[in-house]
Amino acid sequence: MTVVVGIDLQSIDVVRDSLARFGDRYRRRLYSDRELEECETNPENMANGLAVRFAAKEAVLKVLRPNDHIPSWRTIEIQLSPRGGPKVVLTGEAENLARQRGVEKMSLSVSLGREYAIATVIADVTRNESEEHV
Asked: Which domains are seen in the chain, by residue range?
């Protein structure tokens, strides 16, 4: 078993600017319907919620290490439950890539400051680098 770590820092202002500039196109390209529903419950903090999710998705991608094709952002879903803590849910391309990489389990930690969101993903991986290319 190998432990793989991914971490990412995301500016909340950059997300806020992207929402203003690209609107629904930005939201629908990067976030699942569930993620958008969770963030839309509090429009004042929408950029904060999306920034946390963006950082978490980037951290997941760093664990998955895609070679030539990045899976659709919407196939990496970040669920932020006040009771159960943050959770990564993979579907489609991202789920297949995780299986190829031997990812058994992912743990997610997120934090939100005034200007930035940060996320760390720790994954248990059962395959080594040489097995990935078989």
From this structure: 2-132 (3.90.470.20)
